[in-house]
Amino acid sequence: MGTYYNTIASSYDALHKEEQLQKLAIIKKRLKIDDSMKLLDVGCGTAFAKDYFDCEYYGIDPAEKLLKQNYLALINKRLFVASAEKIPFDDDSFDIIISVTSLQNFDDVAKALIEMKRVAKETCQFALSFLKKANNAKEIEKEIIGKFAILERIEEKKDIILFCKK
Ligand SMILES: C[S@@+](CC[C@H](N)C(=O)[O-])C[C@H]1O[C@@H](n2cnc3c(N)ncnc32)[C@H](O)[C@@H]1O
What we know:
The chain contains six helices and seven strands, in the order H-H-E-E-H-H-E-E-H-E-H-E-E.
């Protein structure tokens, strides 16, 4: 999967940004964010979400070429080449964790969710989305329900978005 996203890296935004911004709008409306907060975007792609949230943004993604599309953020150490299954941050680091249309690509969703909980502060707000049509959509939702307290479930055009807390 990482290889696929590296291959389409230079055209990713042209192909997907508009559609993804609609999901970010739904997410932003429901999160309580202020500029002192730290936000982690797991499976951030080219990290265009960085310009969308007014707070301290960090992103991780295993596809280095996608991150390189946002070179300034990469060299400013806001983006890291890393997988959700091994998040390179300390425990209790983040106020907000989002993962937009990425969970269906993870190698080990359960491990990734445990990692997200580990790096989240007790009060962390989570917005986790995945493709409705993904083969593993049911399993992903079951894993999230088993590990988080669900606050709201939204079905948008292509994704299921779950808003949750620890
Ligand atoms: C459909 S894209 C979504 C990217 C971005 N969130 C957006 O809204 O445009 C899926 C992303 O999941 C990433 N991904 C694949 N496996 C991953 C893993 N194990 N951990 C974190 N991200 C992963 C891919 O590299 C890709 O950037």
